[in-house]
Design brief:
about 450 residues; alpha/beta; Rossmann fold; Heat Shock Protein 90; 5-stranded parallel beta sheet; 5-stranded mixed beta sheet; about 50% helix
């Protein structure tokens, strides 16, 4: 049992509290909002609790009482106080154990604890402070001293909480500054890229249209020449020796047979270039307003055309099989350039993940030997559609999942990633379009990113 503060001095080492000097300044802290300060007194001696509670109540504090360690822990768990006055010597559970339990719990470790005990040995004080106590007051005590120490601890805690709040505000501001800087840099970059793509598409479109427009007449002229040549050979089967020699040297029969194949190859290449030009124009949306209604399937197809060179086999990695599982979805009103940028980031990341797995497994695993990129579209409800991009790549380790959308964070090797792609995509989809961007990933099995967009964008 701890000492009773009301017992006589000669029989009790924990004598009553010394009186306040009536001429001293008031002990009630007038610059601390007392009405919101909740103090828990823990002591197994009822008279001690009564005396301290009366003193604190007169000072304006809200007071709660606990007469044992277990009761104190229950009270703190139910409603954490602003400060605890804790006696050490109590049956069943002493103050040291109470303090230890409170300090290991994240919810209660920051509550300041002032030990108030008749034990005045240096060992007791050191142990109390080592366990996390904020202060130690030995009995007998001055009421003024107790009140001032309580006020100091409450102020320290308030300063700490204010500092944590300001630090959090600074972190949020820094994050916003980084996000704004990232958005400005990326917006400028995409504007320049869009203008460059549009310019290239325009410049390539003119000569390729000229070539495509002249291929059909060229084929007709060639057929006419071959017909005339056949007629000539039928009517003059035995030409002069010089002509025979020239025909043999030129291998005229091979030229006639191969020229048709050559024209077909030129036609096929021209069609391919036209498709690329169309894809570039679709991706850049140059000359169009930012917000427009688009066909997501056309946007995805145009990006896949632009990524054809990356989808082909690379070193030991075979070509990536692309599977498009398109559903019947409505056109979506959105910022077309930004949404195209999101899908470009996600598809590029999927290919990077497949490449990374191919390098790590050297094509020995099933996913590395048969890389696949799948795209799914669907209507999620009457107001939104979803696009899922799934790969059979290297995947993302579980501990990194919480950081995947952080600006400048990347799982790629140095020099192979800026850490902006997913952060920008999240900003575009979630913050600008009020949609959602989620993912699932398993190491060495692949990742699945799902973009959900509202059908009508309120920009």
């Amino acid at each position: 049992m701890s000492a009773d503060l009301n017992s006589p001095h000669q029989n009790n080492p924990g004598i009553m509290a010394l009186p306040i000097d009536p001429d001293s300044e008031t002990s009630t802290p007038d610059h601390v909002p007392l009405d919101s300060r909740d103090i828990l007194i823990v002591d197994d001696t009822v008279n001690n609790i009564r005396l301290i509670a009366e003193m604190l109540s007169l000072a304006g504090y809200s007071v709660r009482k606990a007469i044992s360690g277990p009761m104190a822990l229950t009270a703190v768990e139910a409603n954490p106080p602003d400060l605890i006055l804790l006696d050490i010597t109590m049956p069943d559970m002493d103050g040291y154990e109470v303090c230890s339990r409170l300090k290991v719990d994240a919810k209660t470790r920051d509550i300041p604890i002032i030990f108030l005990s008749a034990l005045d040995a240096a060992f007791d004080k050191v142990r109390a402070l080592q366990l996390g106590g904020a202060d130690y007051i030995t009995k007998p005590f001055l009421k003024e001293e107790v009140l001032i120490r309580i006020e100091n601890q409450l102020r320290l805690r308030q300063f700490k909480q204010d500092l944590e709040t300001r630090n959090q505000d600074l972190e949020n501001t820094l994050y916003q500054l980084k996000a704004t800087q990232m958005e400005l840099v990326q917006r400028e970059k995409m504007l320049g890229l869009s203008q460059l793509i549009s310019g290239i598409a325009h410049e390539v479109n003119n000569p390729i249209s000229f070539i495509a427009g002249n291929l059909e007449p060229a084929e007709q002229y060639f057929e006419t020449l071959v017909t005339l040549l056949d007629l000539y050979r039928q009517h003059y089967p035995d030409p002069e020796g010089e002509i025979k020699s020239a025909i043999a040297t030129a291998d005229l029969d091979f030229i006639v047979a191969d020229f048709a194949s050559l024209l077909k190859s030129i036609h096929s290449g021209t069609v391919r270039i036209c498709d690329i030009v169309q894809a570039l124009q679709t991706f850049s949306h140059q000359g169009e307003s930012d917000t427009k209604t688009i066909n997501l399937h056309a946007t995805l197809d145009s990006i896949l055309v632009l990524l054809q060179t990356r989808l082909r086999g690379q070193g030991n990695r075979p070509a990536i099989a692309v599977q498009c599982h398109y559903s019947d979805i409505p056109a979506v009103t959105c910022d077309a350039k930004l949404i195209g940028q999101v899908f470009m980031h996600l598809l590029n990341n999927a290919i990077d993940a497949i490449d990374a797995l191919g390098k790590e497994d050297s094509g020995t695993s099933e996913t590395a030997s048969s890389p696949t990129l799948s795209i799914y579209t669907s209507v999620t409800d009457n107001q939104s559609v979803s696009v899922t991009i799934q790969d059979t790549g290297i995947g993302i380790a579980k501990p990194l999942h919480s950081r995947i959308y952080e600006p400048f964070f990347t799982t790629k090797s140095v020099g192979n990633g800026t850490g902006l792609g997913l952060a920008i995509s999240y900003q575009i989809v979630v913050e600008k379009h009020k949609g959602s961007l989620s993912f699932e990933s398993t190491p060495h099995q692949g990742s699945k990113f799902t973009v959900q967009l509202p059908i009508k964008f309120q920009g």
